[in-house]
Amino acid sequence: MTGSATNLDTDSTTSTTSASQNSNSGSTAPFDSQSQYTGSVAAPRKEILTFVLPDEEGDDDRHALVPLPKTYDEAVACAIRVLGTYMGDATPSNIRLRSRIQDVQRKWIWADIDPENWQLLVSSGDNVGVFEKIRVPRGIHHFMHGEVFLSFGKKETQNRLVWSNVTQPANPPGRGLTYTLVGRPSKLIDAIQIIRALPMTSNVPYEWTEARKQVKDWTEEDWAEATSKIKFYKFVNPNLSTAVYQELPPIAYTNDDVWRVLVPMPGEVLGVVLPPKSEVLPFKSEY
User: Fold this and answer.
1) pLDDT number for residue 58
2) For residue 190, with 0-12 CB atoms within 10 Å meaning exposed, 13-18 middle and 19 or more buried, which class applies?
3) For the range 223-226, what are the long-range contacts, defined as Cβ-Cβ under 8 Å and sequence gap of 24 or more?
4) CA–CA separation, 182 vs 266, rounded Å?
5) CA–CA distance from 235 to each of 218, 228, 276 (Å)?
6) How far is Cα 100 from Cα 107, in angstroms, rounded to an integer?
7) Which segments show compositional bias classed as Polar residues (predicted)?
8) Cα–Cα dist 137/146, whole Å
9) Where do the domains of the chain lie, and which CATH numbers do they carry?
């Protein structure tokens, strides 16, 4: 026991002497961080969400990792930013987010998310599906070519349009007859070109006479002004009726894929409303 005590005293004396010598020599003993502090600070936990753009025709889903959004609207904007190039209509109003969960039968399903309770329902590490409310095929290869009937509308009252008659081909076709048929336009610019060709067409159907008269004196400047004001319509048209109509949505004018989905199918009626003369030619004389 005495030897042990002596050893401890010797070690203590040696340590003290060494520290004293270092102090006297003006040097400082090196600081050993490990002997002073052995703990570590954990790295902040990453909060990451996986967006999934399902391939409804196969197994080629697309995925994207993003920081966990704080709100549903923020998540929609984020989904469009990272996956919008693969969508036909990547606008917020056309996007629906769904969570990947298992139902009571242990099958994996996509469940709609309540936007008001985003933070309660969605956590880091979850898979969130990105769906288009109206699925828009991308590319001209989906487009169905053919002919549509063209009808021009004008305002009769504030809320009512009247439309030019639709002429159907006879069976068999009669010689010299003209029909209100045009090639189904695959994009807005094609539809505008059909209207622009009216003044240069010699055999214009009688039903288009008034529209032709309206645009015959338009200059390039007039067309540039009028193009954004020309509106197109589709019809709920049993027997080619123009009684019930609906304007194509604004995105159809800027997104060719949306236009190709919504423009009337071959054999149906495409409605056109030209802007009033006062909006295009305010300083020109009457026709």
Assistant:
1) 65
2) middle
3) 223/192, 223/196, 225/279, 225/280, 226/274, 226/275, 226/279, 226/280
4) 10
5) 28, 21, 22
6) 10
7) 30-39
8) 18
9) 48-132 (3.10.20.90), 140-169+178-280 (3.10.20)
52: tokens are 């999934």
Contact between residue 89 and residue 251 where contact means Cβ atoms under 8 Å apart? yes
Of 65, 66, 129, 55, the C-alpha closest to 96 is 129
What is the structure's pLDDT at 240? Answer: 87
Choice between 14 and 191, residue whose per-residue pLDDT is larger: 191
Per-residue confidence (pLDDT) for residue 109, from 0 to 100: 93
Specify the residue for token string 């200059």: 219
Mean pLDDT of 253-273: 91
Which of 128, 118, 108, 113 minimizes the C-alpha distance to 53? Answer: 128
Sequence-ordered alpha helix ranges (H) in the chain:
2-24, 33-36, 72-83, 118-121, 188-196, 209-215, 220-226, 250-254, 256-262, 277-280
Give the burial string for 145-171 (b: 16+ CB within 10 Å, else e): eeebbbbbbeeeeeeebebbebbeeee
- State the CB neighbour count (10 A cutoff) for residue 84: 15
The amino acid at 215: V
Task: For residue 183, give the nearest of 207, 215, 150 by alpha carbon.
Answer: 150
All residues at 6 or more sequence positions from 206 whose CB lies less than 8 Å from its CB, including other chains: 178
Q: Does residue 146 or residue 22 have the better pLDDT?
A: 146
Unique residue bearing structure tokens 């008001």: 116
pTM: 0.59
Tell me the β-bridge partners of 233: 247, 271
In terms of Cβ atoms closer than 10 Å to its own Cβ (0-12, 13-18, 19+), residue 204 is middle
